[in-house]
Design a protein that fits this description.
single chain; 287 residues; alpha/beta; Rossmann fold; eight-stranded mixed β-sheet; two-stranded antiparallel ribbon; 10 helices
């Protein structure tokens, strides 16, 4: 269960989609002065080198952040906060490192906000502790070497009753698909008004297809608004590498749908590798 390392996939097209949604959602919630609790249930190591180590072996970033970084369309105002977050961790100007969700969330924290990170992998937990210690915000951040699926409910509801939960497991284990559903259900029981951002791979397997159906049913059961966004960069025969991914957002901020209507076409153009590149956006409250 500890063979997965996100460093192999850092900065790929799935990270790009996940992080543009994450940043937009965080910043909307921060428009009010009240504190927000942010949670990452599968935090990883926090930040990753793109030019050596695991990322250099896989080179997945070349089809993701490398391509977007070099595109003039990355200068569009909608990407400003994303570009600034990445630039912050690349002070020399060259794109050498990619901040994972914990570093992006840490970068955006206000003094009143709190960040809770779960990571079960023993090696990555130690690396995450060291990396987070370098940020100067350690008093606002809690790191736990625990199963985020199981222990998320212990944090809910947050004292401020305002929170965003990011759930992005590897799905390396088939059981992760069911664990997502069970964990979200428990979380909604305790904190129905929280914003839940669930990342998932789009694969030709029953578990992947069923997850979206179950999240749709769960959102309807709890009578919560939802949004689904998927980005496909290629449509090749077979699945030797990830070609598409999506995010399911429960209680999405109201500006997220129009934001994605503007940005998903750009991501399709810039990151698309063949004629099969496409995107899909669906909400529970269509315009």
């Amino acid at each position: 269960m500890f063979s997965y390392r996100h460093a192999f996939h850092a900065g790929n097209h799935a990270d790009v989609l996940k992080h543009v949604v994450l940043i937009h959602s965080m910043q909307y919630l921060q428009e009010k002065d009240a504190a927000v609790m942010f949670v990452d249930t599968h935090a990883g190591a926090g930040i990753y080198s793109l030019r050596d180590g695991y990322a250099a072996i896989s080179q997945e970033c070349q089809g993701g952040i490398d391509r977007l970084w070099a595109s003039p369309e990355f200068d569009e105002p909608d990407f400003k906060s994303y570009r600034e977050a990445i630039s912050h961790f690349n002070p020399k100007g060259a794109l050498d490192a990619y901040p994972g969700s914990p570093f992006i969330m840490s970068h955006l924290l206000r003094p009143q906000d709190r960040l809770r990170l779960f990571e079960l992998h023993p090696s990555d937990t130690g690396i995450l502790e060291t990396n987070i210690a370098s940020l100067g915000k350690r008093s606002q951040i809690d790191i736990r070497q625990q199963d985020g699926f199981v222990f998320l409910k212990s944090l809910l509801p947050p004292p401020s009753r305002r929170g965003l939960i990011l759930m992005d497991p590897s799905y390396e284990l088939k059981s992760d698909y069911r664990a997502v559903e069970a964990s979200v259900r428990e979380a909604l029981d305790r904190f129905a008004t929280g914003t839940y951002l669930i990342w998932y791979p789009v694969l030709q397997r029953s578990e992947s297809n069923q997850l979206v159906k179950r999240l749709r049913a769960l959102s309807k059961e709890f009578e919560r608004p939802w949004l689904r966004a998927e980005l496909r960069i290629a449509h090749l025969v077979g699945e030797r590498r990830l070609q598409a991914s999506g995010v399911w957002v429960i209680n999405p901020v109201w500006t997220l749908a129009p934001f994605l209507e503007r940005t998903l076409p750009i991501l399709q153009r810039v990151l698309g590798e063949d004629a099969g590149a496409t995107f899909d956006l669906e909400t529970s409250s269509p315009a």
